[in-house]
Design a protein that fits this description.
This protein has a single domain (3-94), classed as 3-Layer(aba) Sandwich (Rossmann fold), CATH 3.40.50. The protein has four helices and four strands, in the order βαβαβαβα. It has helices at residues 11-23, 34-43, 60-70, 87-94, and strands at 3-7, 27-31, 48-52, 76-79.
Length: 95
């Protein structure tokens, strides 16, 4: 079964996503920040990574760039519930 890594500093978001994906039969790993997410990925690479953009310790864009450096073909979904910058500003930085 496919493995999904969820990286988000909000416990409620991680928990909700875990429940949804596990109910569909996916294997789910959670990480509460980018540093922890990278560690989880290096120990057990996921088929899909879902990451928040705004997080402590290592924000989402830094995490995405590190993941893509390790595995350019990594499948990543980036999400955010808000912040001071508009989403298009983030995308310019990452790519």
């Amino acid at each position: 079964m496919a493995h999904i890594l969820i990286i988000d500093d909000e416990h409620q978001i991680r928990s909700m996503l875990r429940k949804v994906f596990e109910s569909e039969g996916y294997i789910v790993t959670e990480a509460s920040n980018g540093m922890e997410g990278l560690k989880c990925y290096y120990e057990n690479p996921a088929d899909l990574i879902i990451t928040d953009i705004l997080m402590p310790d290592k924000e989402g864009l830094e995490t995405i760039m590190a993941l893509k450096k390790e595995n350019p073909d990594a499948k990543i979904i980036a999400m955010s519930s808000g912040g001071i910058n508009k989403p298009q500003g983030y995308l310019d930085i990452a790519f």
